[in-house]
Amino acid sequence: MQATEILEREHAIIERALKLLESAVVMIRTGRRLPDGFATWAVNFICEFADRHHHAKEEEVLFPLLEERGIPRSGGPIGCMLHEHEMGRDCVRRMREALPPQGDDSAGFANAADDYIGLLRQHIFKENNVLFMMALRCLSPQDDLSVVEKYRAADARAGGADGAGRFKSELTQFERLFLTSAKADRVSQTVRLM
User: Has residue 183 got a pLDDT over 70?
Assistant: First the structure.
């Protein structure tokens, strides 16, 4: 089913960003410097890609249809996912508030990022392995085509494929920077041991 496959592919992109964010938390807590602009980029990535592109598809398109097909919101998996979206937004608010110009609190950023990472990893697992499996059982092929078309409209409202493509490109650039930084750290530690 394309409707869930699209969301799972986006989950994979978000998980790549979570790995970088996890590395950033370690760097902050061990007193190392983050790649320039990463913390601000991470907050923007989450707000724009994870929330405006991805969560919008779930909240505006998939979840309402699943509800129509009998999956409950209140006391059910949809309500749980929506609540976790709100919890994630609170973590991102805390991350943003820790950054200049609002604040200069690297420990606060790391704590909020750590909370977000744990929340999102569990959230993605639940969607991929529980909610999307339910969707596969209750959505018809016609539903799937309709959902995919509505996803395209949601993407257009959120800046289109160009916006998502930009974030994927920037993500790849930061992955390279973090890899370079990790290699430099290993070389530095080896030199100190000799």
Answer: no
Closest C-alpha to 113, from 43, 52, 174, 178: 43
The pTM assigned to this predicted structure is 0.91
The residue with tokens 């989450």 is 46
Integer distance in angstroms from the first to the last C-alpha of the chain? 56
Domain that holds residue 157: 2-193
| Greatest Cα pair distance in the chain | 66
Counting the structural domains of the chain, the total is 1
CATH number of the structural domain spanning residue 23:
1.20.120.520
> Using an 8 Å Cβ cutoff, are 3 and 148 in contact?
yes
Contact 122, 154 (CB under 8 A): no
pLDDT digits (tens, 9 = 90+) for 25-71: 999 999 999 999 999 999 999 999 999 999 999 999 999 999 999 99
Tell me how far CA of residue 158 lies from CA of 9, 121, 144, in angstroms: 17, 24, 21
Q: Under a CB-based contact definition with an 8 Å cutoff, are residues 124 and 15 in contact?
A: yes
